[in-house]
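Exercise 7.
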Amino acid sequence: MTIIITGGNGFLGRILVKKLGDRDVFVPRSKNYDLRYKEDTERLFHDAGQVDIVFHLAATVGGIGANRNHPGKFFYDNMLMSLNVIHQAMVHKVRKVIFVGTTCSYPKFAPVPFSEHSLFDGFPEETNAPYGIAKRAALVMLKAYEAEYGLKFNYLIPTNLYGPGDNFDDSTSHVIPALIKKCLEAKKRGDKKVTVWGTGKPTRDFVYVEDVADALILAMDNYHRSEPLNLGSGEETAINSLVYFIQQATGFDGQIEYDVTKPDGQPRRCLNTKEARMVLGWTATTGLRDGLQKTVEWYLKND
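Solution. The predicted structure, written as tokens, is:
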């Protein structure tokens, strides 16, 4: 079995590659294969040989600030990568595509916890909409290619990933690495205050990256349906509670100030993971506090 993992050098991709062990894995680098271009994507599939499985993890992605600053780029890049990868998978008769979507595709006011059947029931939260719509459109393409060409696929929707190896870049990081870095740097400088975007009231569902990598492998081996499948902890955590947990994990005991002029993003986000339990036998096993502690320890060792 030959496996292509686009985005295999990214946060989730590196964990997935490690967990796949000695399987034949081809990880394209963006400097060699720019998946926004048809020619590069064709060359990738040619160079990889007879491909059985494609994990499509590659994405242009970031937090609220990055989404707000680059809505056009996020839409354009993600649409092109999906179009090219899915089409070449069909052309090369790949046995199955495992596509990683996003909770940003869910409607802004979807009933909580989000169920897979509500994915198309409204428009996403505005700051994430270009990225979310691009990922949602890929599901439409996959279903169309299944109907016309017989392409087999899984469409998996992880919620907010975090863990060791996360992206801590100031301009593109998501909420957990951003807050960990802020608190640790404030503690190091002796600052008495850290500023957090928004009101602190929105909720999120945070899932440890290794748990999601396990789910992807289970899907590859055991999930033979094309209906979307949520991957989350199933626990709804308010941002202000998350901040408190990160303060404990980092040892920052200063004041938290919420900048209410900055956007909150989606008001509530939590996934219904009943289907993943039923069809994969999968549940997230790493608790948020334990996962945060591991993430902080990794960052301190690798900063």
